[in-house]
Amino acid sequence: MAMQTTTTNPVELLKADHQKVKGLFSQFESAGEDKKADIFKQIVTELQVHTKVEEEIFYPAVKKMDSDMALEAEEEHNIVDWIIAQMKKLSPSDENYDAKFTTLKENVEHHIEEEEKEMFPEAQQKLPAKQMDELGKKMMARKEALMKRTTASTAPRSRAAAKPRSRAKAASR
Question: What is the DSSP letter of 27?
Fold first, then answer.
């Protein structure tokens, strides 16, 4: 198992996600065309799980202290989701693929910067420690459940995809 986080501080958990995504961005940029699709899949999984956890658990708490900030952050998530949807339609060999990735990266990095410089410090300042701890525990549990579902949903699909091929071979013999 990879590095296990022992903190239940929601800000630290989210910052760890941010670092992981930034690392994947770097991998993507230095990867050859053959590796980009796989790294992109990892980026998508990380971003989707992260945004779900934020929107379900962290943002509602932020919204109570600063609704404009939370609403803007959600809109930024929508933009990122849209870029991801566009990229999913392309293959790494498409001439627009890398340009779309750059736009994705710039939007995510802008969003990370706003959260880390504005939202997180405000949350740490205004939300009681007990609430922060509760948020962190909920977020960890939710992320774990989502990650399990993501890996579970990709595994059976690949096995299912293999079955018709073997049946086709048997039929053609």
Answer: H
Does 129 fall in a domain?
yes
What pLDDT is stored for residue 154 in this prediction? 57
Q: Are 77 and 48 in contact (CB under 8 A)?
A: no
Burial class (CB within 10 angstroms; exposed 0-12, middle 13-18, buried 19+) of 72? middle
Look at residue 130 and tell me if it is in a domain: yes
pLDDT digits (tens, 9 = 90+) for 108-142: 999 999 999 999 999 999 999 999 999 999 999 99
Tokens linked to 156: 């059976």
Enclosing domain of residue 41: 10-172
Residue 1 lies in a domain: no
- Whether 83 and 107 have beta carbons less than 8 Å apart is answered as yes
Question: What is the C-alpha separation between 66 and 20, in angstroms, rounded?
Answer: 27
CATH of the domain at 78: 1.20.120.520
Percent of the chain clearing pLDDT 70 (strictly above): 84
pLDDT at 159: 41
How many structural domains comprise the chain? 1
Closest to 146 measured CA to CA, from 62, 46, 57: 46
Dihedral of alpha carbons 38, 43, 45, 46, sign: positive
